[in-house]
Amino acid sequence: MVSSWLDIKKRQPIISKMMMNSIAKGRISHAYLFQGDKGAGKYALAHMFAKSIFCQHKNGEEPCQTCRDCRRIESGNHPDLHIVKPDGASIKKDQILHLQKEFTYTGLESNTKVYIIVDADKMTDNAANRLLKFLEEPSQKTTAILLTENSQAVLSTIRSRCQIMSLHPLNPKQLEEQLLKEGLSAASAKLMTIFTQNVEDAIEKSKDTWFAQARKLVVQLIEMLQHNKDEVPVFLHTQWMPHFKERNQLQEGLDLLLVFFRDLLQYHLEEHSKIVFVHQMEKIEASSMFWSMKNVTENLQAIMEAKRKLEQNVHPQLVMEQLTLQIQR
Questions:
Q1: Closest of 88, 74, 10 to residue 43, by C-alpha
Q2: What is the tens place of the pLDDT at every residue in 258-314?
């Protein structure tokens, strides 16, 4: 939960400083474009900025969080803050027309108005052109905040009228700390940072039964490659391939396999603090007796080659059969 500019500063130090300076100096632009990957914190930044604009009891740049304005923004019920989201797959012209109509009315408590357009790149051409006309005649008391993961899909004429703020994705350490705060175990938090840079996606994946089963299958394959080589082809046919049906799913399976062998390499290098599968330490220790550091390095290269073959549309079953044969050598 983001509750202050300090929280945002931890995630987006440069952008937060720029926004806080504009608030402190009273130099708020009529239009902003926040661009960044999913999970970078665009909506949280827009939300906090809106609070700072409306709050009448700020402590410096920090909104008080307790006044009527702050509480209504938090609950989504502020009469002078309008949020536009895609209606289905796109933001339509009628939505922008409705927004313009709302802005012709005098503010209920002040003439200050803010609107946030989520996924601004999903505006239809008609909606984008309508918004452009809106931006060309800005009111001194109106602030537009556009959010997008793909700024190049936003009309260049709209971009040119906005102050562009580029948000950086969370680095793995920041994401790991955030996930620990959200209640994930240290092992799960560390693993999730490999698969996503988004807090919400990471939490969802940590609860995903398909992903949990994928982790089990990887460990089973590792054990089989060591102790039951003759059964590997049957295991691939009856358990592995039915679970990793799609190419993107198989890529995740190979990513998990990469994690295990990287952990094994860290074990050989005595860098135990860098191990991700910490709950599998006994298996990693046993595997270190089976695969030398040279073997581990070769296996990592083989897995990366398997991932490349998948991208080149080589048949998935063939990719896995070749990979397991290479690892068994």
A1: 74
A2: 999 999 999 999 999 889 988 889 999 999 999 999 999 999 999 999 999 998 889
**Rounded Cα gap, residues 120 and 105, in angstroms:** 24
Distances (CA, A) of 83 to 79, 117, 136, 166, 202: 11, 6, 20, 20, 26
Q: What is the pLDDT of residues 77-110, one digit of tens each?
A: 999 999 999 998 899 999 999 998 888 776 556 7
What's at 242, amino acid-wise?
Answer: P
pTM of this prediction?
0.62
The region that residue 76 occupies, defined by phi over 0 for left and psi between -120 and 50 for alpha, beta otherwise, is left
Question: How far is Cα 7 from Cα 3, in angstroms, rounded to an integer?
Answer: 7
Per DSSP, helices labelled H in the chain are 5-11, 13-24, 42-54, 68-75, 93-104, 125-136, 156-159, 172-181, 186-195, 199-206, 209-227, 232-235, 241-243, 247-268, 281-290, 293-311, 316-328
- Tally Cβ neighbours within 10 Å of residue 301: 12
Distances (CA, A) of 169 to 184, 300, 304: 20, 27, 25
Give bridge partners of residue 33 from the DSSP assignment. Answer: 146, 164
Asked if 225 and 321 count as a contact pair (C-beta separation under 8 A), the reply is: no
Residue 8's pLDDT is what? 85
Asked whether 208 and 51 are in contact (CB, 8 A), the reply is no
Q: Which amino acid is at 136?
A: E
Domains of the chain: 5-169 (3.40.50.300), 208-328 (1.20.272)
- What is d(CA 16, CA 49) in angstroms, rounded to the nearest whole number? 10
Closest listed residue to residue 68, CA positions, set 82, 57, 83 = 57
Q: What is the rounded distance in angstroms from the CA atom of residue 137 to the CA atom of residue 256?
A: 53
